[in-house]
Structures
1.
Amino acid sequence: MDIHALQQIVHQTRDARRKQTFSKLSPADRDQLIHKYHPDFRESAFRPLRFGPNVGDKTAIELATLLEGDSSVTDGFDLTPDYTTDVLVVGGGGAGCAAALHAHTAGAKVMLATKLRLGDSNSVMAQGGMQISVAPEDSPVTHFVDTLKGGHMQNDHQLLKVMVEEGPSIAKWLLSLGVLFDRDGDGNLHVKKGGGSSKPRLLTCSDYTGLEIMRVLKDEVLNQDIQLLEFCAAVELTSDENGNCTGAIFKDLDNHRNVVVAAKSVILATGGIGRLHIQGFPTSNHYGATGDGLCLSYRLGAKLVHIDTFQYHPSGAVYPEQLIGALVTEGIRSEGGHLVNAKGERFVDELDTRDVVSASIIRECEEGRGIRTMSGRVGVWLDTPLLDVAQGPGTMKKHFPAMMLQFERFNIDISKDPVLIFPTLHYQNGGVKIDTNSETNVKNLFVAGEASGGLHGRNRLMGNSLLDLMVFGKRSGLAAAARAASMLQGTLTVGHLKGFRAEAKKHGRVSGVVSPMILPPYTRKE
Amino acid sequence: MAQEDKENIIDQPEVLRHKMVTVEIAGKKYEVPEGITIIKALWYSGQEVVRGAGCLGGFCGACAAYYRTKDDPKVRTCLACQMAVQDGMSITMMPPFPARKATYDIRTLKDPKQDLFNLYPEAPLCRNCNACTEACPQKIDVREGVWKAVFGDFKSVSEMFMDCVMCGLCTPVCIADIAPNLVALYVSRAQGAHFTEKPVGLDIRINEIQDGRFNDEWTKLLKMNEKELTDHCATVK
């Protein structure tokens, strides 16, 4: 059928739906829904790790293969450093930039290496906003409770307390650098309500929050004396005789040469795993989201946590084909946008946590109440025109310019026509286990941002990622700089590979791949 | 699928009648499926993409590209992850352009509106050709923004350039060697750091945290066992 004909039911049922209210599901009902429909509970998509620090722990098959993969660094590799620095930051997204800036401010010599350009990251795409409890009726404690509920009570309490308490000072830091957060008439920071939150707490820069923060942080990194190593992919970490981290080995993607960097401490801010397309899902993630930092840390003996849980953002675009997997910001649901099935019915409280909303969309589609495309995809409607109807014409354009433009390019006006959506692989809830200084169980190896785990429990709350990046980017940068001031550079070896390879051999080197992946294999071979 | 409901399938003739088209990538012809994005056409034609792909969502500006459609002399600009290919299209990715970025400490500027002319002395030399505006894939009125910056209307510039993905397509076309995106970035940061009201509520909250206003609540909360904590969380709605 013509898409406009199919959309009619959304227009026809709008007035009736607006009178409806949805109560939140009870904890038992939520659990039941998630267990039945959330991709994390599809047993066949997971397997236990055969060896390494997390032996026996279950993770997605795609990730397990890479974690058990071999290093490209072979015996006899020349480990003479090309560069020597105090703090080496790997990754050029939000956490990497924040870490580099704070380590530099603390007086350390800093190098930032990234396999793409500075700033090419998931952070730049964050649209929904950043949760910080600045409203008078809100508090860090309430932020803590909301996050804990969202994370199924599995969050690391210490990490979480640190994050919510340092939020306001992070907002002040960003404002001082010139970040333009939306304001209320009285000059105070405007806050929006996010999914799974009991109070309005999202700071936003229209729907360009991540872009605005990243424009500023990138500019700030370039303004400071921070050495940049772009288009260089980390392929291995180095260790001394005690197994402590002492630097990293990179492959320059332009000239294919190896680059060895000696560092007193290394901060991995390598982001997530969306481009592994776990269970075949499309992803909202950037080109380089291949979980490189997890592989590097794992081989060096760092323990991972919650690696069996991934976040599927409820609203990934399903139509048009060119936008498959791209995010339709949660902000639209925050402002009242309904999710509507093929029968014109709402089926969930749109502001429930992401895992619940995603599971309910999958349920609607599996039970035949989805709308299908000829390329074999399925989805439900997000009633975007509702915003202009409820809040006046021009609301969509004013509040969601990025979304409007993205669809306009394909001649779709989402202020007039609803959008077809389905969950898209969005975020790695777990990652490398860290302490409140962002350090792992491997000395001098820090991990910040999405690559780290524990903070978000088993489901990250909307808007907590940007804050995570800033808080733990800062903490890792400051801790690494302080450490560097009081220690000598350790020797560079790849001694840790010996044990890892022996373990792999014992298990028949079943993985058969070299990791990290660096970039997804999209180039068609013929 | 529990139920095959033919009624709820969107027509997509492009999917049914899968058509190959000829495009020219950096001067070489390739057959690629119609309607895929330029980035996907690069992968499809066997190219290893390292430079020229970033977020793949239209936000990072890594994939700035030039294209021309069949028989049209006009060379246009786009973000390659957001543009669908069509038959006869000629495409080339924009190489890194060596624009000069001024360095500054945004927080310690004394007179940001005057400093603009020291940091970017070329900014007032705009000759109104409007090429920057035409080159912008984000539909920003770039030329107008440069003039507003020069006249000190930093607030308008910061609003106009909120959509800027820093792709830099406005820069190579400028006959006055202005890098409008970099000028606008400086201006927007100055607007935020120097000309925007300080939010009073934020300082109040920071002080409350420093003064330990929430300490009692924290102590109570962190002492709870798992069951108590779950019950407590359930009361927060």
Note: Chain B is about 35% helix and 10% strand.
2.
Amino acid sequence: MKNICRKYLTSFVRAFSFMVLTILLSLHFGAGNCLAAFGEDVEKPKPVFSKEGSAIFVKLLPRGKSKSIRIRFEVTGGDLADIQAMDLPKTENSDIDKKDFRSDLFTVHVANVPVGGEVTILSSCDYYTSATRFYVFNEKAASPWSDTNATNKSLPDRVQDLTFSVKDGGPYDADGTADGKITVNCGPWDSFWGYAVGTLFIRFFGVFLVLGVLQTGMIICGKLFERADKRRKIEKEALVKVQVLEASRDAVETVSATVMEPEMVAAISLALHLEVIREMESGKALDSDQSAWNLYGRQKIMSDRLLVFNRHTK
Amino acid sequence: MSWAHVLELIQQILISQTGIPHITGGALLMIGVGCLFMYLAIAKDFEPLLLLPIGFGIFLVNFPLTPLMGETELGYPELIRAFYHYGVEWEIIPCVIFLGLGAMTDFGPLIANPKTLIIGAGAQLGVFVTYIGVLFFGFTLKEAASVGIIGGADGPTTIYLTTKLAPHLLGANAVAAYSYMALVPLIQPPIMRLLTTKEQRLIKMRQLRDVSKKEKILFPLIGATLIVLLIPAVAPLMGLFMLGNLMRESGVVKRLADTAENDLMNIVVIFLGVSVGATMKAETFLTWKPLIICVFGLIDFIICTAGGILTVHIMNFFLKEKMNPLIGSAGVSAVPMSARVSNMEGLREDPTNFLIMHAMGPNLAGVIGSAAAAGMFIAMFQ
């Protein structure tokens, strides 16, 4: 065991050292590329836009998902002119993380707005949850990122509607002027860590649940099988008992069929009794295997058995 | 033709048709890593069935200009790329390996003591802790899930999940999973001794009841029904696993069961090993992430082992007949290595205490548990 452990330990230490050395050397060879792996946004959604009537649909693969989703944008109080994808602006606000914008950020252009008027932007998707919020970015504002406190309404088929208002030239309007056009940099926001930790607990207990259900199913099946086996065993035992009973009845009948003289029976009984008394007095009674009566009996039985196989004697 | 032309031609051949001028430091390092894996497999008998083809895959693919992992001008995959595409990306190989595993597995100990299934669930603790841990290092949710599953100590499940969620980490995850599985006899015993008292290690468990053939035949059907109903995402893995087991237990298709557990398994292991190794090209592998995966994989294994043992401790609060907590470490599904470690640790304390059959229950539960955890992650990202 010690040798095996030593062997494994040596291999492990070597492998680990080699791995560390490899990584350090590789960093030396091309640190820029290596560290880029951390900064690289490998999951950045690549939205595709399509206009259907007055609405614009965005199809994209959100962060942390394997299936694409469709987000619908619509505007009341103006014309939805265009929507473009937007990179996360670099700001000093450390609270904002690109991972919180799982469905990307967009620049929404609204035209034909009454000067200084207000429009309502509606965004709906079955990927939103009741906790989804809508954030707006305006670099000209004192606090660039702000929560729009959008109304979150649940619709059939698990679709959530997020609605918020933007005033021409107001704090959410990126161009900052009341000119009949509104530009809003915005995106649906979900807490990344809230989702990660929340789902972690659900999934971990989910594994317990699945195996617990399987365990229950197996226990029930096991009990059924055990009961069936037990019943079968009882039936078998009962059958054996009946057979034994019948066999013993036959034997008794055979013995009782052998007619013995009462004098003979009394003589055998007396002989047995005297033998036991004698052995008890001599202290040999406990060692019954070596009593003369016993040895004689055994010898007689064995001789009788041998007779059966010894054809020559017949 | 002048000498200048001849020299130019030679130069052109050297540059465009040989790999020598294109070799990089990173590629040389990876060739070294490949050689190390082959050395560990050949000289140290360290998971040779996988490390040898993986090592050779790394070795081969890191030579420059090799037509192995790319595509031809007509868009056809090159040799190893074809293995990888049809075997791994199409998720065929991990599922076929599960078919073979099913054909090899005797679920008797688990059927005789279904309580041990909960230990298999408890031993998945590390999977979820690691998932959160690597998120702090900038991994994405999908990458974190694929790294977390390493602690499940189930090679095909790790490969299956990683291919689905983070294929660029396949090489690192597969190597970490198989390496730590080989190191189970080294990693687990200190944790087992740390988390148990001498009295607990001396607990003798009642002999398991006999399991009838009918029960063994029904198990794959009941198991598949319940698991697939609750986690449909894991149907490819568990479906083939249970099919393999049904082939074994029914006894009517011995040839098929034999092929699944031997020939077919051996064939796919060759393609799997080479394909996984070939994903470890210098330009994709030489980053910080494999190092973090290496460290977190170890932490993952340790927490999974501890999770299994702690689950037994908790279960013992409620059970009349106490279980030996040493069997908890077998919830890490490195079959049958971790069950053997439990048995060895039991025998260390009491040479008459044989725990192998009791430990096989949680060991098999670990296989189902890690597949369930993988299914949970797949469902999460759907």
Note: Residues 90-198+208-280+287-380 of chain B form one domain.
